[in-house]
Design goal:
The complex is a heterodimer.
Chain A (H helix, E strand, L loop, with lengths): L10 E7 L4 H17 L4 E7 L5 H5 L7 E6 L4 E4 L5 H7 L12
Parallel strand pairs in A: 1-2
Antiparallel strand pairs in A: 1-3, 3-4
Chain B lengths: L3 H12 L2 E2 L6 H4 L4 E2 L3 E6 L5 H15 L4 E5 L4 H9 L5 H6 L3 E5 L7 E3 L6 H14 L3 E5 L3 H5 L3 H18 L2 E7 L17 E10 L2 E11 L8 E7 L2 E4 L15 E2 L4 H6 L4 E2 L3 E6 L5 H14 L4 E5 L4 H10 L5 H5 L3 E5 L7 H15 L3 E5 L10 H17 L3 E7 L19 E10 L2 E11 L9 E6 L2 E6 L1 E3 L2 E3 L1 H79 L8
The chains are: A alpha+beta, B alpha/beta.
Chain lengths: 104, 573
């Protein structure tokens, strides 16, 4: 496990949405809040609307919407959902070790 | 009003639009294909051919019906799929390059994914939509969408999304095939049949008595008639081939043309030969000459310039050719000219249904005028007897429908009744020839008789059946007070008869000679008597002449005496 990586690391995150759905909007807001808290000043969020560019869904193997992809740092991670479950989101982003999360 | 309702319903059923699959046999079973614009569920256990069926549906749609297709695979990659069907002669890459097919491999790796909050599968919808739009697909395959259940942890959400997906596919008007794994006690593991309810096909790969057979069944087809049986199907070099159980009824074309049996005497027994397109059963015990009779028939068909398919289940091609040459039938030239197709295989190497399907396929390819199956009894080894019977019924029906003269050879065991063991096919058989051994006086000889031959006069006599180096010969058997005699008994009897006839002839000749002698003797007697008579007549004539002469003398003497006496008596003169 590598909880909160070294502070110099840049984070590149991609959020795949399909139009302005409530879930997409919620996901973006939840993501921004989490990043501001855990990765202040060293993250980058790219929102990709697959409605406008469906080809990317195939190329990046997106099935569920919304999907958050951690492009950097390696390895690639995927988190699906509106990110309302902050604990799971942090685990998914490897900002917190998995054992700290109570799994249902 | 009441009478109109069913008529209206029938019209709806008849007008249900269908998308032909192009898969041989499947369109017949489904009465035209899969429901157009609706999803069809194809379920079955692993390795039963779901993917292949789905793929063929797409490829044939793209190549034969001008309907581009989209293939969404959840398990295999595009390359893997292309490779799988390349062995079946389909060039998927070319179809993709030509814009007739679109592929998307939806890969969901659970380990990589964390679920954090609510989501939906809009991404999947977008990808399917993209695949459809990129080629203008009219047909869509989702293979196997159930894989999603292992990729996401919320089954309730997945179900809701799948329900939405199938409705969405309907709205898009594409004809979809959705494959699913067979579940325990249910058609599919995830109960997809609940959502895809227009048409459900069930594929099955069963191993029975060490022999595997693939079968297909239309479990349900809303708004359409369909065959309800299990239909065997094959995966061949040409793709899937489903074998429709004959639904043709008894509407075969009937020919009154005769075809030679290859044996002149047998033709005579049958009043000219078999009817073209009829089914002939030749049954007999081991070594009674069934195959020889079949070879005669094959050679006769080839001689007429017809194609003949000879399916041998007990001997190899080389063996048959050699054995038949020994009785004066050379099959090699017909093989070389491509008229005779001798195909040997072990019956147990495949299931009955597979055999049946192969016969269908070969017949469809070869279009023979005559077919020989030697023997059908070894097919019985390939499956339970009920299956064998059903299969043969279907086979005979199929061949009759094509107007193919079929000779089925059947080996009967020596002890049972010859007529009782024919797998229930005798009622379908037009001409039934039985070859049997006649055991007599320490010899086995072959006898042939015609049990039945529909629609023709046929001899009711047993013929002795000889296999000579010039082929088969039929001889009249000796039927007399001593019973039916064959072989050397017949020869001995014939010799006896010959001796008796000679004896009789000699007797007659002797008698004739005796009579001639007697006749000659009598004639001599008659001659002698005639001579005697003539002598008597002569004597009588001489006697009467002498007496007359004597009278004259006496008269003269009297005159002379009177003259001598002169007037003594005073005779006036």
């Amino acid at each position: 496990m590598r909880p909160s990586a070294n502070d110099e690391e840049r984070w590149v995150l991609r959020l795949y949405t399909a139009g302005q759905t409530p879930k997409s909007v919620a996901a973006f807001e939840n993501l921004k809040r989490i990043c501001d808290e855990h990765l202040p000043g060293r993250y980058e969020i790219e929102v990709i609307d697959l409605m406008k560019n469906p080809r990317l869904a195939k190329e990046d193997q997106i099935v569920a919407i919304p999907t958050l992809v951690r492009k950097l740092p390696d390895p690639l991670r995927k988190i699906i959902g509106d990110l309302s479950d902050v604990d799971r989101t942090l685990v998914g982003l490897q900002l917190r070790p998995a054992f700290q999360v109570r799994r249902p | 009003m009441i009478t109109e309702a069913p008529a209206g319903a029938a019209r709806v059923a008849a007008s249900l639009p269908k998308a032909a699959t192009g898969i041989s046999g499947l369109d017949e079973i489904t009465d035209g294909g899969l429901p157009r614009g609706r999803p069809t569920l194809v379920c079955g256990s692993a390795g039963c051919g779901k993917t292949l069926l789905a793929m063929e549906f797409l490829i044939r749609g793209a190549t034969q019906f001008g309907e581009p297709g989209a293939y969404i695979t959840f398990e295999e990659t595009e390359e893997e799929l292309a490779q799988n069907v390349r062995s079946l002669g389909h060039d998927v890459e070319r179809l993709i390059a030509e814009g007739k097919l679109a592929f998307d491999h939806v890969h969901v790796e659970r380990q990589q994914i964390e679920e954090a909050g609510e989501y939906d599968l809009e991404g999947l919808f977008l990808r399917i939509g993209l695949a459809i739009d990129s080629v203008g697909a009219r047909r869509v395959v989702l293979d196997t969408i159930e894989s999603l259940f292992s990729g996401f942890s919320n089954p309730a959400l997945l179900r809701a999304e799948l329900r939405r997906l199938f409705r969405w596919l309907k709205d898009r008007g594409v004809t979809a095939v959705i494959t699913a794994e067979r579940g325990e006690g249910a058609l599919t593991r995830q109960g997809l049949e609940e959502y895809v309810s227009d048409c459900v096909l069930l594929l099955d790969h069963r191993v029975q008595q060490q022999v595997s057979t693939r079968r297909l069944r239309v479990v349900k087809y809303r708004g359409s008639g369909h065959g309800t049986n299990e239909y065997p199907f094959l995966i061949t070099e040409q793709g899937i081939s489903v074998l429709p159980v004959t639904s043709l009824g008894l509407s075969h074309k009937v020919s009154s043309e005769r075809v030679s049996t290859g044996v002149a005497r047998l033709d005579a027994m049958l009043d000219g030969g078999y009817y073209r397109g009829s089914s002939i059963l030749v049954s007999g015990t081991a070594g009674s000459g069934k195959s020889s009779l079949a070879a005669h028939f094959a050679a006769a068909a080839c001689k007429r310039g017809e194609r003949c398919l000879y399916l041998a289940f007990e001997e190899s091609q080389a063996q048959i050719v050699r054995n038949m040459r020994s009785i004066g039938i050379d099959l090699q030239p017909w093989l070389a000219r491509g008229l005779l197709h001798l195909e040997a295989s072990r019956p147990t190497s495949q299931g009955l249904e597979t055999h049946l399907a192969q016969v269908h396929q070969r017949v469809s390819e070869l279009k023979p005028q005559a077919i020989i199956i030697d023997p059908i009894s070894s097919l019985a080894a390939a499956g339970p007897s009920l299956d064998t019977e059903a299969m043969l019924l279907r086979l005979i029906d199929f061949l009759k429908d094509r107007g193919i003269t079929a000779m089925l050879v059947s080996l009967t065991s020596g002890d049972g009744a010859l007529e009782a063991t024919e797998y229930g096919v005798s009622s379908l058989i037009d001409t039934w020839i039985v070859l049997r051994d006649i055991e007599l006086a320490g010899e086995r000889n072959r006898g042939l008789y015609v049990i039945k031959s529909r629609g023709m006069h046929h001899s009711n006599q047993i013929r002795e059946f000889l296999i000579t180096s010039q082929g088969i010969d039929l001889l009249d058997v000796y039927v007399g007070p001593e019973g039916v005699l064959t072989g050397s008994m017949r020869i001995a009897q014939e010799a006896r008869e010959k001796a008796a006839a000679l004896g009789r002839r000699q007797q007659v000749e002797r008698r004739e000679r005796e009579l001639a002698v007697r006749r000659a003797a009598l004639r001599a007697q008659v001659l002698a008597l005639e001579q005697e008579l003539k002598a008597i007549d002569e004597e009588a004539r001489i006697t009467s002449a002498e007496s007359a002469a004597a009278e004259g003398v006496r008269a003269g003497e009297r005159t002379a005496a009177a003259a001598r006496r002169g007037g003594e008596e005073g005779d006036p003169e």
